[in-house]
Amino acid sequence: METLTTDTDVLIVGGGTAGAIAAIQAARAGARTAVLERGPQLGGTLTTGGVAFPGLFHAWGRQIIAGIGWELVTRAVELDGGTLPDFSRPYGLEHWRHQIPLNGPLYAALAEEACLAAGVQLLYYEMPIAVRAAPGGWSVEAVGKGLRRTLTCRQLVDCTGDADIVAMLGFARIRDAETQPGTLRFRFEGYDVDSLDAGEIETRYRQALADRTLQPGDVAHAGSPFIAFLRAGGENAQHVLGADSSTAATQTQANIAGRRSVLRLLRFVRSLPGCERARLAAMAPETGVRETYRIDGEATVTAADYVAGRRFPDAVCNAFYPVDVHTAEGVEPEPLHEGVVPAVPLGALIPRGSRNLLVAGRCVSSDRLANSALRVQAPCMAMGQAAGAAAALAAHLGTTPATVPFDRLRALLRDHAAIVP
Is the pTM of this model over 0.90? Predict the structure, then answer.
């Protein structure tokens, strides 16, 4: 195997929704920055996971999340010839109207372009296998096909989604006994919904559920009419029960279960009168996972904090999304009260008792209900930018993220177009 060494100021582990933004921010702030990414591209859930509608950036008629994530999203919309939603519309119960459909592969390419322009070193197909403290920071051992790499860094940002680095270093992670199901994004086409006999289809659907031709989770809202599933092309309408991304083995199982579910659904749909020519038009490469581990941070965002829009003294970004816990029976979002805009404190990105270590993304320190909203992409992008800025400042000042001058952190974020509470 080839043996390589890399020295950098800030190392981001995981180039997903939060990690890509963290890397761009750290590098634009002048820190030598590298990203370890196990897959072939940046973007994570937005790209490889196929959930290409990041939201929500606006609330109650105003923008509450901006910065680098917003920059990339709007670039992707413009280059794809798309249009943005009308954000002046009242939010109400229809939060999906403020989602921004994206071309996922295009977003991945734009995120990569922005990283390279900022000077980020991208290390695809590499994974950390060991982390230890070193003089002035950390030493990380990583492996990839045909190579082994030793990385030294001053600051480490865990954007793995599962707090993998936090666990390697022995800091606490939290996981509830029950976790949300995952979803494998796919889309069917090749039939005309308006010409179908909804009553006949519903009878066959109920029979398929009864005789287990279709299994629990194949349709997320099993109690809803199947014609609604067909009208949506199946998009975002499936649950993979027990989906878990915390190890290679469990992610493999989730991917297999998701694809088996898609095949069951496709064969069933093709058996319906009028759907004989149905086809699988698109499918994400991997099952998206909503929930695994969260860190025990220096601060924790509770559901009470979230729904009240608590103003933390060290708030670094806003968040906005309904409390959104998926279950085996489906999901019933709980919208926020009018005018409420939650926030995320810097302390929720710092594992308790750690130095020179941050997280960003869905493993933010939070309780389960708050996490069900904080896990979505726009807040994760905002957390990523905050973590990247804090890591860059800490590296520059020779300190740890918890002690960087907060006014300087806020100023740096605003210099890069972020909205700081």
Answer: yes
